[in-house]
Amino acid sequence: MPTTSSLGLEYTPLEPLFQEDPFPFYARLRREAPVTFVPAFQLWLVSRYQDVMAVLKDARRFSSRDTLRPPVEPPPEVWAILESAGYTPDYPLLGDDPPAHTRLRTLLGKAFTLARIQSLEPRIRRVTTTCLDTLTSGERNADIVARLATPVSMYVTTELLGIPEADHARIKQWCEDEKLCFTPLPLEQHLHTARGVANFRLYLRDLVEDRRESPRDDLISSMLEARTEGERPLTTEELVALISVLLFAGHETSTNLLTNALHHLLRHPGLWRELREDTSLIRNAIEETLRFDPPIVGMMRTTTEPVEIAGTSLPRGSRVFPLFASANRDEQLFEQGERFDIHRPNAARHLGLGHGIHYCIGAPLARLGAHITLELMLERLPDLRLSPGAPVTYLPSLLHRGPRQLLMEWGA
Questions:
Q1: Separation CA 51–CA 36 (nearest Å)
Q2: Could you say which residues form the signal peptide (predicted)?
Q3: Which of 51, 80, 271, 279 has the largest count of CB atoms under 10 Å?
């Protein structure tokens, strides 16, 4: 077993106290052990901006092939359920290296265009307005995650793909099942989440076959039709896996970006009023949120040969976890990095949505949804505030970060 700092023993990302505020631990990593081994998960944490960037820029030596491989292997009974639905632990785009990644990114890029994203703006405004109408009809408090952020983000992602609104609730539950399925769980709960993941894959397969027979004006149909010279089109299996990635990452990232932004804007006195008075600050407030408390903590890599990071030698086959959430507060780049500052001039240099060939393909859509929702909330809820004393808890996850619940109040 590698010998590094004992800090690796203190890495407990699934524990509630750690989830509540992991940033002091990250700061210690940057100061004391910028590259350290975690025996519990058999991985190396990389915490400084410069080193994280070096990993993300080097796709040859730091492979993404196993980026979403479970840190703890599920039991055989769980795998049996997953495999019965054709599930494989391969996640296109996120879990591919060139040239396979290049092919998929090119084909998806032909369908997932900026024009398609921009065409969603009127619909995002409409669904956000509808949610706000419902939210404010006689009420003076609510959980913003359940009542606004999740339904808006789910609507935007499913609208893009052409998935019926009637299926939103079960898709959300299946995404929650997939998030939990690859964490340590009691066996009965593990089997329950595996059934959800299996049903999700079967649903997506039926959806792809339906679009193959009856194309529509949606992203799934466009991906079926996408062609690039010298490359084969996407297969049903590839599309099922790719759509699961887009659905999960799309709504999860967007929900967490919006709720993290609201949490920090309202925790800091005067910021909500400042944004109301100058809505041009919304854009940089979103970038500062992505820096200060990103929706994606980091993404795994695997070394393809012996490497050295910040003076630490890692053997071939090492699991490396570059921590975007830590790099984003590195004071070598971000002055007073532990301070939330919507005027920060270099906020956009964050790694909150990754970097390089695996930079989040849905980033423009996540930013657009957050911008529109914040703009409408500032207009409709000028006195919005966090409910006093309400705890903010997080779903256990190595990769994702966002409140499970965010209770807010408005009015007298």
A1: 12
A2: none
A3: 51
